[in-house]
Amino acid sequence: MTQKYYPTIGLEIHAELATESKMFCSCKNNPDEEHPNVNICPVCMAHPGALPTFNKKAIESMIKIGMAVGGNVADFTEFDRKNYFYPDIPKGYQITQYKFPIVSGGELAGVQLTRIHLEEDTGTSKHLSTTTGADDKKTAGYSLVDYNRAGVPLMELVTEPVIHDAETAMRFAKELQLLLRTLGVGHANMEKGEMRVEANISISPDPNVFGTKVEVKNLNSFSVVGKAIAYEIKRMTALHEAGRANEIVQETRGWNDIKGETFSQRTKESAHDYRYFPDPDLPKLHLHSLFSLDELKGALPELPWEKRNRYTSEYGIKPEDIESYVTDIVLSAYFEKVVSLFSEKDAELIVLASNYITSDLIGLQKSNSEFVFPTPELFAELITLANDGLLSSRAVKDILPILATENRSPKDIAEERGLIQKNDPEALKKIAEEIIEKNPAVVDQIRSGKETAIMSLVGQMMKSTNGSANPKLAQDILREIIMK
Q: Which of 165-180 are b and which e, b meaning 16 or more Cβ less than 10 Å from the residue's Cβ?
């Protein structure tokens, strides 16, 4: 019998907060700065005698995050020094939180949280190389450090070890990114390093006992999170099955995207290695006195899961459409404005509008970056014409790009171009009779039971009327004439 192994995963996610200035000084927090070492000062560069001060906005952002996930916002909190030496950390220590985080507990995307604390980010190491010698084959490597990012407010969220597969880990990270953007506290662009994921992974033959864990650091995309976790589970399982489980050690590993595998970096430190102690330059904080928690909670926007529930109950649109609106605030505002313009909140009308927004409008925007959505008023009028049977789907698709450049009634455009759908049964009957007479073989197929053949005749009717025939009515008339 094959031994089953149970994976356990915990995530540590760092996300930079979108404040104007850094965490403990007034230097600009600008992730897009291209010139190195311009947003620095004696405080974030740890010059002797320079004292840090708090960024109140960053702490407020942390409280909002804690409230959104249903965590406990601490009254008492303090900042600690985490001591270690690395070139990108100018102080020789990082200001962080250890025993008294701002937020403890909470839940997001069905995953329980341990804590969310606030710290400062490090600088950025840039590893470079040059060629030497006449043959240009020998290389010499060197590193430079850009301290623009050093001191930027950084949220660290730690989950409970309750994740058991890569898909859940990726879904959690995506939901956290969406929450930070919804709250307006962070951009969380992973490609810019504004959000970084670290995964703690272990496997065990006993679901009630944790195995030796490894930490895979600096995973910079959702797909890489999934790939790294899946690889580690596979690697550990193979070692267990080969009787070499003792080779799994507590360590930090990196991800090689080219090879599609993790690699060992160093043995994993324990908390005591960092010699944490309260930062003597920063005062203790009592957050319940410094901030109005009731006001902050009342000012929270509609959260992603709340919007999903509301859109499902109020609009009944497809889950994939709902996700488009949840992840794009501008798109959801456009959709809701369109819906508000309908004279009646007809379910079919709303679904039809949503279908055209998430497929055709977004499609036009993807194919042409300069495409501008038509005004909600013109779009609502267009969808109403289609829902009333005056415009075919083809006509709607033809009119949409015109509305983006011509601010006038969709009905006027349709009439000018002969796109108003023909719903006159007598007029369509004459066209149908002519087409039936010209296609006796197709008629015989339909009469012999091949119902799908009728669509070729419908297509000819649409062509004959320049797409203005009501396709359902055309099909009904054709069937009535053929089968009588």
A: ebebbbbbbebbbbbb
Provide the domain limits for residue 18.
6-295
Q: What pLDDT is recorded for position 453?
A: 86
The counts of H helices and E strands in the chain are: 17, 17
The number of beta carbons lying within 10 Å of the beta carbon of residue 296 is: 16
Calculate what percentage of the chain has a pLDDT beyond 70.
96
Q: What is the CATH number of the domain that holds 438?
A: 1.10.10.410
Q: Which amino acid is at 130?
A: T
- pLDDT recorded at residue 447: 86
Low-confidence ranges of the chain (pLDDT < 70): 1, 130-140, 268-271, 422-424
Q: Give the pair of three-digit tokens for residue 471.
A: 């396709």
End-to-end CA distance of the chain: 67
> What's the confidence (pLDDT) of residue 423?
66
Counting the structural domains of the chain, the total is 3
pTM as predicted:
0.86
CA distance linking residue 41 with residue 36, whole number of Å: 13
What does the pLDDT read at residue 469? Answer: 76
Angle between helices 347-355 and 376-387 (to 10 degrees): 120
Q: What is the pLDDT of residues 249-259, one digit of tens each?
A: 999 999 999 99
Stated length of the chain: 484
Between helix 304-315 and helix 319-327 the angle, nearest 10°, is 140
My answer on whether 323 and 240 are in the same domain is no
> Nearest-5° angle of CA 54, CA 194, CA 270?
75
Q: Which residue has the tokens 């008294």?
A: 100
**One domain for residues 336 and 452:** no
List the structure tokens of 423.
Answer: 């719903």
Angstrom distances, CA of residue 162 to CA of 44, 165, 236, 452, 466: 37, 10, 18, 52, 60
C-beta neighbour count of 5 within 10 angstroms: 18
- Residue 479's CB: how many other CB atoms inside 10 A? 16
Q: E strands along 402-457, which residues?
A: none
Closest residue by Cα to residue 102 from 247, 260, 290: 290
| Per-residue pLDDT reduced to its tens digit, 171-198 | 999 999 999 999 999 999 999 999 999 9
Count of alpha carbons within 13 angstroms of residue 150, beta-carbon side? 27
